[in-house]
Amino acid sequence: MSDSNSTGHSSLSPPPPGSRRSPSPGGTSVSTQIALRNMRRLEARRNMEENHYLTQKARNCNLNPPVDLRALDYVSKYDDNLVCPICRCPLVDPVLLMDCDHCFCRECIRQTWTTYSPLGPKGDCPTCRMPAKLGPRASTSKILVNILDDLVVKCPKSENGCKSEIKRGEVQDHITIYCGYAMVECKDSGCGQSVRRKDYDLGCLHYNVSCESCQQNMPKAELETHWQLQCPDRQVKCDLCSSLIYYRDREEHRKEACPAVNVPCPGAPLGCTNKSRRAHLDIHVKGCVLAKLGPVLDAQKQRMDEQESAHKLINRKLEILETGFTAMQDILSANRSGPPDNGSTETLIVPSRSRAESTATDSTRIASADDYDFPVPPSNRGSAIEPESPPTTNTTRSSTTPRTTATPRSLTSPPLRPAPQAPFPRPTDLPPPTTTDFDLASPFSTTAPGADGPYSSPLHHLLSMHESLRDEMARVSAALTELDGRHSMQILNENLRTRDEIAYLGGQVAGMGRQVHWLTSAQLQRQTPGGSAAAREVGTGASAGGGGAGGSVEGAVNAMSTAATALRGAARVVNVGGGQGSPTSPGMRRGVSEEGRTKL
Amino acid sequence: MAANKRIMKELGDINSQPPAGCTINLPNESDINNWEVTMQGPPESVYADGHFKIHVSLPKDYPFKPPGISFKTKIYHPNVSNDDRGAMCLGMLRPDEWKPPNKIKDVLALVRTVLAAPQPDDAVETGIAEQFKNDKAAFENNARDWVERYAKGA
Ligand SMILES: [Zn+2]
Ligand SMILES: [Zn+2]
Ligand SMILES: [Zn+2]
Ligand SMILES: [Zn+2]
Ligand SMILES: [Zn+2]
Ligand SMILES: [Zn+2]
Ligand SMILES: [Zn+2]
C-alpha cells in the first residue's frame, strides 16, 4: 500500500531520502531507534497522504468546478424574504452590511462593489445607497444559514441525467464524492482523460464511436451526453405543451403543431385581435364571425380582381367600338343631310320610313312597338328620345338592327324598293342581351340584369348593332351593284333601239333622196333646155337658189332639211340617254362614291 | 450563469405580469440578453396613440451593470437622443447610479413615467428641452406629429 503510494506519487512528493537505508546513529537504544523510525515513517506517510489529497482535490476541482449555489434549481418553496435582491436566489453565504443591516450574498455584494471600483470591495448599499462596508462579524446568524442550507435543490448535473435532489448544503459533497454524473479521472491511468463517475468501472471509454442516429463521431464516453443533450434526433419535451418531440422537429412543432402556442385567429386580417392557443383555436373559430367571413371574402376579392381585369378589357373594347360607332353615325348623318331628292340611291341608304318615325316618335312609338321596337317600358321611352340624343340615333338604330333573315330577301327584291319595308326584327329576333331593359340614350346604365355583368349588355348591343350595320351595308352595296347592272342593261337596250331607229331614219332619208333625185330629173326632162342649169343650181346649195328654180324644187329642199333636223334630234336623244346611263358619267360616279363611303 | 438565472427569472416574472402598456418579445429566442419591448404611449400624454419599440440590452454582467435602453421608434422627446441609437438618458441607468437590485420591470415603468413627464433638466436633446420649457404648445405639436409619422405603424 505504501509502496504503491510512494511509486505512484514519487514525482510529486519524493519520500525523504534514505528513510529505510540510513543507518541509525549510534549510542541510542534500539527501541528509541525503532520508535523514531516509526515516527518518521508515519510523518512521511502523512505528508504523502496530504499531498495526495491536495492533488486529488485540485484535479477534482478541474474536473468539477465548485458549484455556484446561485445557479441551482430549487425544488422546495422558499420565502421571498430569503431572496437576495441582486441575484434573486435564496441567499448564499448571506452577509449583513454594517449600519443598514441589508442582507446580500457575500459574492453578490463583492461583485457589485468590484464592478465599478477597481480599488476593492467597498461602496454603497445597493438597496438604500448608504455608505456601507462589511464588518468583522458580517455573517448572519447560524439559524438563517441552516434554513437556507436545508432548501432542497436539484443536482447541478441534472441536465446530464442525475436525478438526485439534495439539500443545498450538501450539493458540493454530492458532486465531489457521490454524483454519478460528476467527472473523475479515467480508470486507465495512462489515458489522462476524464469520465463520469458512474462509468469509471467500465474501463477506458476514450475510443471513437459514431452515433447511430446522426452518424457523428465521438468518444464512447461522450455518447450518452450526446444522446441526452446534443443529438438532433434526441427526444425533448416541448416546454409549452410538454409533449415528447424530436429536437430536430421542435421548430416545426412550435410553428405547426404545438397546441400550446398562441396563434392568431384566421380572421386577423379582417380585424379579429383574438389570439388563442392552437388547441382552443377551433372553439374560437366556431364563434368568430370574422374567421368565418375570411374565406368568403378572400374568394370575393379574387373574383373582384378577376372582374376588374375583365372589366378593364371590356372598357377598352367598348371605347374602340364607341369611336367606330360614332364615326359610322357621322357618315350616316352626312349622307342624310346630302341632296334630298337624289332619287333611288338615297332612299336605299336612309330608309324614309325610319326618318318619318324619328320625327313622329312620340305619337307612333307605342303603336308601332309590337312591330319592331325594343321592349322598352313606357317610362323609359322618354329617355330614349331625350333632346340631346341626335335624331340620327333613331335612324341608325332602326337601319342597323340585325337582319340576318331579311338579307337574302332584300337582295331579290325589286331594285327601287325602299329598305325600310323590309321587316324589322321582333324582340325575339334580337340577341338576348338587347331584349333586356336597355336604353340607348344612356348606354352605361347599370340596370340591365344580364348574367354577364352590368356592362356586358350595352356592349353586346353595340356589338350586335355594329354587326347589323355591317350586314346592312353589305346588303345596300349589293343592291346598289345590282341596280347598277340593271341600269346599264336598260341603257344598252335603249341604245340598241335608238340605233335601229337611226338606221331606219337613215334609210328613209336615203329613200327621200332618191325620190328627190327622181323628181329633179323628171323636172329637168320636162324643161329640157334650162333644166340642166337648174339642176346644177340645186347641187351647189340652196344659198345660190335663184328665182329661176321651180316651187317643187323648193319644197323638196325643205323636206330634206326637216329630215336632217329630225336626224340630229334623234342623235341627241341617243347621246343624252347614253350620258345618263353610262357608269362613267359624273352624276352616277358621285352616287357610287357616296355608296362606297357609307360602306366604310 | 447566475446572471442568466436572474434574467430568466425576470423574464418569467415580466411575462406572467407584464408592466402596464408593455409587451416583451425576444427577437432571438436563444439570446435572452436582448429584449424587444413594445410600449404604448402613456394615456393622456402626447404620445398616447403611439406604439414605441424599445430595445433593452442586458450586459453580460447584468445585474451588476445597468441595462441599455434605446428607442427603435423615433420619438420627439428631450430625454431620448434623436439619432439612430435613440438612447434614453435615465438617471437610474447611469453606471454610478445603477443598483443591482433594480429590475427591468422598474426600468420600464420609469421609462413610461419619463414619457408622460419629460425631464428637461436631464435632457440629451437640449433643443427639444428648450422648446419644452419655453413653448409647450409647439413641443406638443411636434411630438404629436412625430407620433403620427413614426409611431403609428402596425
Ligand atoms: Zn445574491
Ligand atoms: Zn442598505
Ligand atoms: Zn448528482
Ligand atoms: Zn480513458
Ligand atoms: Zn447523434
Ligand atoms: Zn409543444
Ligand atoms: Zn377571431
Keywords:
heterodimer; A: 600 residues; mainly alpha; 3-stranded antiparallel sheet; two-stranded antiparallel sheet; 53% helix; rod-shaped; disordered N terminus; B: 154 residues; alpha+beta; Ubiquitin Conjugating Enzyme; 4-stranded antiparallel sheet; 14% strand; globular; binds zinc ion
CATH superfamily of chain B: Ubiquitin Conjugating Enzyme
Share of helical residues of chain B: 25-40%
Which band does the percent of strand residues of chain B land in? Answer: 5-15%
Kindly provide the radius of gyration of chain B, computed on alpha-carbon positions and rounded to a whole number of angstroms.
16 Å
Model regions low in confidence, pLDDT < 50 over at least 5 residues of chain B: none
- Global structural class of chain A: mainly alpha
CATH architecture of chain B: Roll
Domain UBC core (chain B): 2-152
Pfam family, one (chain B): UQ_con
EC number (chain B): 2.3.2.23
GO molecular function, one term (chain B): ubiquitin conjugating enzyme activity
Structure overview:
The complex is a heterodimer of chains A (600) and B (154). By secondary structure, chain A is mainly α. Chain A is 53% helix and 8% strand. Chain A contains 19 helices and 15 strands. Chain A has helices at residues 2-8, 30-63, 106-116, 142-149, 171-178, 220-230, 250-257, 278-287, 289-336, 343-349, 352-359, 361-368, 378-384, 391-400, 407-412, 456-526, 528-540, 551-581, 586-599; strands at residues 94-97, 103-105, 123-124, 131-132, 134-139, 152-154, 165-167, 183-185, 194-196, 208-210, 217-219, 235-237, 244-246, 262-264, 275-277. In chain A, the strands form 7 sheets. Chain A has a 3-stranded antiparallel β-sheet. In chain A, strands 3-4 form a two-stranded antiparallel sheet. Chain A has a two-stranded antiparallel sheet with strand order 6-7. Mean pLDDT of chain A is 72; it is low at 1-24, 340-455, 538-550 and 577-600. With 154 residues, chain B is of the alpha+beta class. Chain B has one domain (2-151): Roll (Ubiquitin Conjugating Enzyme). Chain B has 4 helices and 4 strands, in the order H-E-E-E-E-H-H-H. Chain B has helices at 2-16, 104-116, 126-134, 136-150, and strands at 22-25, 34-40, 51-57, 68-71. Chain B has a 4-stranded antiparallel β-sheet, with no helix packed on it. Chain B is globular, with a radius of gyration of 16 Å. At the A-B interface, helix 3 of A face helix 1 of B. One zinc ion (ZN) binds at residues 155, 157, 162, 164, 174, 179, 181 of chain A. The site of one zinc ion (ZN) has 8 residues of chain A, from helix 9.
